[in-house]
Amino acid sequence: MAAAVTAALVCLGTAGCGAFGGDGDEDGKPRAKDGDHSAASSPASPSARGGKKPADEPLRGKVIVVDPGHNPHNRDQPGKISRSVDIGTGKKECDTTGTATNSGYAEADFTLDLAHRVRTQLRERGATVRFTHDGDEPYGPCVDERAEKGNQAQADAAISLHADGAHAGSRGFHVILPASVHEGAADTRDIVTPSRRFGTDLRDAFHAATGEQPANYLGDGNGLDTRGDLGGLNLSKVPKVFLECGNMRDPRDVAHLTSAKWREKAARGVTDGITAFLAAGKGKP
Fold this sequence. Notes:
- This protein is of the alpha/beta class.
- It has one domain (54-279): Zn-dependent exopeptidases (Aminopeptidase, 3-Layer(aba) Sandwich).
- It has helices spanning 78-81, 107-124, 143-152, 192-210, 231-234, 251-257, 260-279, and strands at residues 63-68, 84-86, 91-93, 128-131, 157-164, 174-178, 182-183, 186-187, 224-227, 240-247.
- The strands form three sheets. The protein has a six-stranded mixed beta sheet, with helices on both faces. It has a two-stranded antiparallel ribbon with strand order 2-3. It has a two-stranded antiparallel ribbon with strand order 7-8.
- A hairpin with a 4-residue loop joins strand 2 and strand 3 (91-93).
- The longest helix has 20 residues, at 260-279.
- The two termini are 26 Å apart.
- Residues 147-275 form the MurNAc-LAA domain.
């Protein structure tokens, strides 16, 4: 979602720096099942957790909303996902199909796989995890609905998972942060600061877990990008960021994105970033 807008939930949509000094759309691109579905996942009971101590579950009592970018079925509903929805600062498509690798591995499939891995790891740390969808809806949800699901859950943090669709040679990951927006239904003023803390923690943790470098094709290379044109961020009332895990059009990034072993590392990075943000009490204002 930032240097090459692709298709979006396969093409439907950052100051402190920690360790680091296309096509594109509502999935954050600059213009280029194991089934909880949308329901809350309650943490296991103490006995089921094998007598874990509170220190082993730093996210106990926290609610995390995970938004798998795009939807594998969006491609079958072009008319419905192309309808306009209000994002406060203007109108955007309900959703898009997202991008894909040259061999056809869809972003929507990648984000669902990663979301399941993230959910598993977050639960192990005691969190309650909710999805915006689990690939079981005919399309979408629309970008405004994705934001509303986080709001309704009163989430401690929300994250939208994506992969970019920039030109080959454009490599790396980046985190998209909400700009300060106050227009129409959009008002991010209360979440800008905590979302930036969240994004910085996420960037540092994702780098540490995967060894990936921040994107070399946007901004100043610090892995953070601020956007005011994404409904998923504009309409959020809870700390929220988008994560672009890599570029699905670059062969070297694709080798990672298509690797189950790498996706497990990526899930660890996401989970570590969320833990660093929430366990340190840097969440809701």
